[in-house]
Amino acid sequence: MTPLIFLPGMMCDARLFGPQINALSGSRPVMMFPLSWHDTVQAMAADILQNAPPSFALAGLSMGGIVAMEVLRQAPERVSRLALLDTNPLAESPEVKARRAPQMAAVRDGKLKAVMRDEMKPNYLADGPARGAILDLCMAMATDLGPDVFLRQSKALMDRPDQCVTLRSFAGRALVLCGREDKLCPVERHQMMHDQLSQSSLEIIEGAGHLPTLEQPQETTAALIRWLEDT
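RESULT FIELD:
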């Protein structure tokens, strides 16, 4: 059975994929690689490849999807299937890059919780009964990872390359998935990725924003199972 690697979003850990790990780990090897130790996506991807199985299915959400595309660029022969969730193949825009500098300055001043609470968390989720609990989990993951990880990940995102050529060159089975109400990585961006991948399916999860793995776990897991069929 092909191993499955999950790559988490910025300031998230394995808890981001808790429902999916629980559902899938009984039928195949499931791993989660942290994105904590490097400040470029290139170094993050190289570290994953150094420690990953020879061949694997790869699923990344948000920053995890950005790193997954770099893994694919560096070693396309090792990625059997690719799932990109609520992510972005483009280099960072000047507008977003400009917003990162004050965020990083605030975090250096000990204001990580304030940055997560005021600037990032409000953009994450759709309205729903679990919104408060998921926001609390996001804060717990961020504070557990800490300010140094925030700074390294911010730098990596600022300097990331465009991966559209990488996607166009991938011939394997792919899943492009996002929450219908994702404000950070909107549906139109996922349609673009779907169009660039030659063997992809596009899944839009209703009632979810940027974190469908937690907001609508059953629907997201079902989409991943369909993507993994026959591996």
